[in-house]
Amino acid sequence: MRTSDRARPAAGRAGMTRRSVASAAAALVLAAGLAAAPVVRAQDAADHLISYEALPSVGVDVDFAPASYAERAEITAEAEATIVPEVFALLDMDPAAAETQVTPGGYLLNTNASLQTRLDVSAEDADRFAAAVGYVFSQWSVLVTDFAAADGGTGYAVVDFSDGTLDADLAQAFFEHAAGVAEGLGGGYTAFGDSMYFLNVRGDDGPYSGLEDPDFIAQLRASAQGFEPAEATVAESGAVEARFVGNDWDGAPEGGDYLAVLGGPDTPVAAALADLAATWNARILDIAAEKGW
């Protein structure tokens, strides 16, 4: 259970390599065959946060290394405005019943622009949405976090900053500082508003961070107390349910792992998502050509 009942969007990754994420995702993906329905609060609905990125990980020959954070955020905002609503439409979900934001997100001591979508839906529909965006944006995995779960097995903590102060630079500075306090804190984070969220995601052999939940939270408290550039406070901690929905693009280059969650490759939804993915990849190539990447 959480130590605070504040309803706040949150998610992040801790201590993972991309390939280990893919392996974890393959084990944790839930095959969902639920019929599409509008997003409404139902008896089995829960507060889910879906964490993903818009810059393709595979499928386009673009080196994003020269791109600044501002450029990445601009592209991500375009995806949020143009592509994400199409995903909702294809899944017969109402985007007005969800909240999607462009936020900083950290992975292995790097900060990148990310997308966070908060949904009050069943686990099956949360996984369907995660599979759809993971497929369209060519991601190795998408993190699904259920903050309403009473029996979540993933520890987490929220680090708060003063109103209006948390930007990508400050988030990265705290990320690096925390990793200096405890290396396992350098795995990943998500930011929402003026808060950073750290999840102690687990694999078959225990937490990727190498820290058990009490120590993970204690080290974040120590990091916050010793952070000099700005006032930082651990305002919330507890346990959530977190899982990955993913695709092993090496073994399933057509996105079959994602499509299995969506009912298989021979469905109208799969065909429409393939068209949407092609549209986004073409847009990415146009942007890269314009910027000389």
Low-confidence segments: 1-44
The total count of helices amounts to: 8
Mean pLDDT: 85
> How many distinct beta strands?
10
If strands are numbered along the chain, what order do they take across the biggest sheet?
1-3-2-6-7-5-10-4
Describe this entry's structure for a reader.
This protein has 293 residues and is α+β, with helices and mostly antiparallel strands. 35% of the residues lie in helices and 25% in strands. The protein is built from eight helices and ten strands. It has helices spanning 18-28, 69-82, 84-90, 123-136, 168-181, 213-225, 256-261, 268-291; strands spanning 46-52, 99-107, 110-121, 141-146, 154-161, 188-192, 195-200, 202-203, 206-207, 232-246. The chain has an eight-stranded antiparallel barrel, surrounded by five helices. Strands 8-9 form a two-stranded antiparallel sheet. A hairpin with a 2-residue loop joins strand 6 (188-192) and strand 7 (195-200). Helix 5 (168-181) packs across helix 6 (213-225). The chain is globular and about 50 Å long. 46% of the residues are buried.
Notable characteristics:
alpha+beta, 35% helix, disordered N terminus, globular
